[in-house]
Fold this sequence. Notes:
Elements: E1 13-15, E2 21-23, E3 27-28, H1 34-47, E4 51-53, H2 61-71, E5 79-84, H3 90-101, E6 106-111, H4 120-131, E7 135-141, H5 145-155, E8 161-165, H6 173-182, E9 185-189, H7 200-209, H8 213-223, E10 227-228, H9 235-242, H10 251-258
Helix pairs in contact: 1-2, 1-9, 2-3, 7-8
Domain NADP-dependent oxidoreductase: 25-260
Organism: Nocardioides panacis
Keywords: NADP, Oxidoreductase
Amino acid sequence: MSEHTTPHLPTDSVTLTSGAAMPLLGFGTWQIKGSQATDAAAAALEAGYRHLDTATVYGNEGEVGKALAESGVARDDVFVTTKCPPSKPGLATLRESLDLLGTDHVDLWLIHWPGSDGDVALWKDFVAAREGGLARDIGVSNFDAAMIDRLTSETGVTPAVNQIEWSPLLHDRDVVEQHRSRGVVLEGYSALRGGTLEHPVIVEIADRLGRTPAQVIVRWHLQHGIVVIPKSRQADRIRSNADVGDFELTVADLRAIDALGPNP
């Protein structure tokens, strides 16, 4: 895709607990640091992404915040997610994240992975942050259904989102149903890793449609209502990954891709 070509971005979103709309397409920033993080986030915003995903342990919240501040895009038009390690003090960590991001709130704050104590105390900090307006919605990452149920039973508050590793090769209808039955939005990361881009089924569909394998994978997520956050350091690829708003996969294509997972 030429840098002068305007990508056809999707407008798909999902409504969270607060009533906020979370774009199904976001830009991931894992393993992108320093000026590359600023440049990549800036390229994503310029391409039309309105959802940025970062985390305390990524070490790039300041760079992502700089890109947002310099983009000319209104803060309220961008959905910003960050994450807290379970070993960190909740509210103090969030305030550090907000300072680095240059904002007075995040749209979504996640416990980055399960801790050894079940995370109930930390989750109560998350609830307090939501009630105090520091985080509009709160959720978890890398949790299973039993872990989510414990937080709900102990606090009465169900995570709005669970961000887990997800791709066609990991597709599991039971996992999808576990989330939907609890009202938890499933968000996937590492969608373009693990051999998905080279899989013959995906390559065949991409070739037939005149699309890239990455575009097919992103489109597959969107049509399943699953949030996807592809990442790249390259502006052309950032734009290309988002250029999925002007085509759809057929039912047969979806079924063929679903069948790559362990439980289609």
